[in-house]
Structure prediction request, 161 residues.
Amino acid sequence: MTLDATDRRILKATASGLPLTPHPFEEVARWLFLPEGEVIARMAAMQEDGVIRRVAVAPNHYALGMAANGMSVWDLDDARAEELGAQVGALSFVSHCYLRPRALPDWPYNLFAMLHGRTREEVEAKRAEVAALLGDACRSNDILYSTRILKKTGMRLAGEG
Prediction:
């Protein structure tokens, strides 16, 4: 897909996120002096073509009281990893979950799932819940706790701040 000037304006206007209003696309359209339907259609086309990967909420878990956040890592049987990964990703306390290749011999983990809780004890209980779900398909696991919030930003176009 070739981006035209209007597509670039839409991407630039939404790079820091959509406005927190009942009708965010209407607001973006107002900013750009475009019809709302055009903004929606163009964003859908860019998503279909892979220019936009997804439109999603990126909450600040700390502001929501979730101060214990850990990336759990799991060494799963490859034959069951996709099926079980989908089940883990569907859990209400998992914000994102994905499969990645192992980096043997140092890193045997192929499933990553971000767990959130108010305390480490709460997160450890959730980790135990994931371990029970994975059962004997899981050979080992670990968790890497967050120590600070990393800056979350939207897409930036080359050459544009």
Observations:
- The first strand starts at residue 68 and ends at 76.
- Helices lie at 5-14, 24-32, 36-48, 78-89, 120-134.
- Residues 120-134 form the longest helix (15 residues).
